[in-house]
Amino acid sequence: MDAWRINPALLVSDPNASTVGSTFIRVVWSGGITDYPTGNEVGVDVTQAYRLTYLYQGKIASLTPLDIGDLNDGDNMHDLSFPEIPADAKLLSIILPNGYVEDPNGDPNPSQSFRLKSSSSEDAPTLKWRWRYETPKNFAGAKIKARGTLITDTDPDADGYFNAMSIKGKRNGGRITGLYPAGTSIPGNTPYAGDNLIDFEKTTTNPRLTKNGLQFLIEDGSYSYVFFADFLESPRHLEYHSLPPYTEGPFAPNSETSVSFQISLIT
Q1: How big is the CA angle at 246 (ends 245 and 249), to the nearest 5 degrees?
Q2: Is the pLDDT of residue 187 over 50?
Q3: Which of 76, 112, 187, 202 would staple 29 via disulfide (CB 3.0–4.6 Å)?
Q4: Which CATH number fits domain 2-116: 3.40.1350, 2.60.40, 1.10.132, 3.40.50?
Q5: Model's pTM, two decimal places?
Q6: Is 11 in a helix, a strand, or coil?
Q7: What residues have CB less than 8 Å from 197, skipping those under 6 apart?
Q8: How many angstroms separate the CA atoms of 65 and 210, rounded?
């Protein structure tokens, strides 16, 4: 599904245009859309359910629309109005959760993410992040220090997750050679499959990993699986590290260790 900025000058003579806001973004559905389950024109609940995500000066921000224009004409477009957004901001996505609008058959929408076009009408590029994690300074066991960069898509899903596409860096001096595929378990960690997602907008103000974690390969033949253990009494990030012969579970030579994980957006 596509979405793009609209020049406000194009809406001056449009009787269906919104009269509030200064930034306007058009979203296009694959078919006609009305309110679910009433079949009427959409109202405040749908307006407040849309969410725009954009990147500006190295920070990601989210907004809900002030209003929706281009209504009462039976087409498949919504013109969303927002407060002023800097012209050089990188628009990333617009999301509408499931169950707010319906198609001409009366079927409710699934969760929908619109890929926004930049002002040059090209898709926004990937995002680059800087990450690091290490054992606490007072940790009595074997020290861990890992750091590097991560490339993700620019299109967060309905839960605010960015999908990791590639990774570079080192763990205790060993070169990281790549991500281990999402949806599978690294050797010695069955049945815990990683998802390689960055959780940007949840209960903390800082980005973090999910409980399913980020997983990667290291040049020495070992694997690391770093995840946010939200099920613990004191939630924290852990690293599970497996080495040959890849025995299942955190038994030597494998290890599971508390780490301090940080990730920040570069560009």
Answers
A1: 135
A2: yes
A3: 76
A4: 2.60.40
A5: 0.60
A6: helix
A7: 161, 162, 163, 164, 182, 209, 210, 212, 214
A8: 28
